[in-house]
């Protein structure tokens, strides 16, 4: 087996075992209904996590994701409910402002040469503050377009339903995987995360790639915000607080190396599903309180970080031996 | 010479910024500097800044060392919640307050050492290593309090949060004491130098004979301990341990305070007193925005602008501009 696929396989195996054990305890978990809800409930997290995967592959981190989701929700709600825009125009506006926002963060990361977490921290304050200045209350959205989108459902045998937003997340993962593994931009991102000095010596346009990565992450966060707005039919400035942590956890659990340069978009998908499984299991159990989610996610995070270290230590030794 | 050095130290940008923020507050709110003596303690907006700024200042004191070794500790907010939960639960269960305080401090130290172990021994990047506890810590705190806000009326714990000593709020007194202790620890012994050496180049420092693993454990342990102290203050202040909200996002304020204080995020250069000044700047802005009647949401935007300002000043681009100018000034002397 290809050595570089090991962390991905490890994640997949752990998900399969965890799911199998959960099904043994609660047979109800194995139904199209639960699987469909997996996709719908985690759609916004999954879309944001795809962007986070690119940022982490490039050796950076984006802490502003949750705030951008919150800001987008508010912006879209205000444009539709107060200004009377058509949702599609509001969505375009949200994506465009997110692109500008991410581009600025990318410029700051590259030209000020400061760690990405501090730049995106400022971005997080800015987006969260901006959303709170627009409104402090939750703004409901009711528009025919929203009703039409939530009526787009594929019914599965067994009572399951695939929603539009769930399928959108899957599509984003497929496109994300293609971009990461099959395009020039994707290989630039991997090169940058591996070693930015060698990457620039090899002719990788470091500035353009860095800006592109943060732009992509913010735009996907905005898309996640749009999905969140479709999911909740409202915009709230404090929505999606801490989603960046869930997204980072999903990426790490999915086997992407936090030092950058190594990982798979598909792994992130399994990571998101694993987080979803933890939540669903705790809901199914009924006696466990929601705070167990955090402890289990923390433990999983720890497990995978140590696993990565062990696998990479082993493969370095293996390469030296051979 | 010493006079001039003392003067130039007074004129550093952080202190000037603090004075500037305080002056703006004074213009917006003429009573800002009015201090009154009531019930054996001082009252006034400035005292309020010192009191409210204390938890972040204490976190910043611990965070300085971590950032100086090129690390970061994201878990301090969660550790605050854990320490508060431990103290409150023990007191409610009938243990004497000193035991609860010591237990909370030990738990904070343990959390810090756990982070240090991940960073120093397992060689995990600090931002990831401390992320584990940041995510799991609040869950653990809720596990300890069983999901409730545990309230207490214990005199010692309440005194830590709201009492006063020599007219100053207890939180401020604790912050000053920790500032003095930690500054002496890093500046009167070689530890500060070792921290800077590890921050610049860990491998080289290790080769030069510095026990960098021990040092990293120490630095993260101290950060955990500081977080526990801040957690006790916050819990005492509201007379309860709130696992969800105690110290929420304070790690970001602490990092911001350290960065404003001129400690380099690339390691190797740090100042404990200036980090405390940074914390006071943040709190003075918060108070200023509140007393001048702006919605508190403006805080976040002002903070973001401040981060960008500091980053631009610290960036290599700005250094290049200054370096170009400096020889001219030297020649003129």
UniProtKB/TrEMBL annotation, chain A:
One family name in Pfam for this protein: BPD_transp_2
The keyword Ubl conjugation belongs to this UniProt entry's keyword annotation: no
InterPro entries recorded: ABC_transp_permease (IPR001851)
Transmembrane segments: 7-26, 38-57, 64-83, 89-109, 162-180, 187-207, 213-231, 264-284, 291-312
Keywords: Cell membrane, Membrane, Transmembrane, Transmembrane helix
UniProt subcellular location: Cell membrane
Keyword Coiled coil set for record: no
Membrane topology recorded in Swiss-Prot or TrEMBL: Multi-pass membrane protein
Main location: membrane
Name this protein carries in UniProt: ABC transporter permease
Originating organism: Devosia nitrariae
Automatic annotation (TrEMBL), chain B:
Pfam families: BPD_transp_2 (PF02653)
This protein's UniProt keywords: Cell membrane, Membrane, Transmembrane, Transmembrane helix
InterPro entries: ABC_transp_permease
PANTHER family reported for this sequence: ABC TRANSPORTER PERMEASE PROTEIN YPHD-RELATED-RELATED, GALACTOFURANOSE TRANSPORTER PERMEASE PROTEIN YTFT
Membrane topology: Multi-pass membrane protein
CDD domains according to UniProt: TM_PBP1_transp_AraH_like
Transmembrane segments: 12-29, 49-67, 74-93, 99-121, 128-150, 156-186, 215-236, 248-267, 274-294, 300-323
Major localization class: membrane
Superkingdom field: Bacteria
Annotated protein name in UniProt: Sugar ABC transporter permease
Location(s), subcellular: Cell membrane
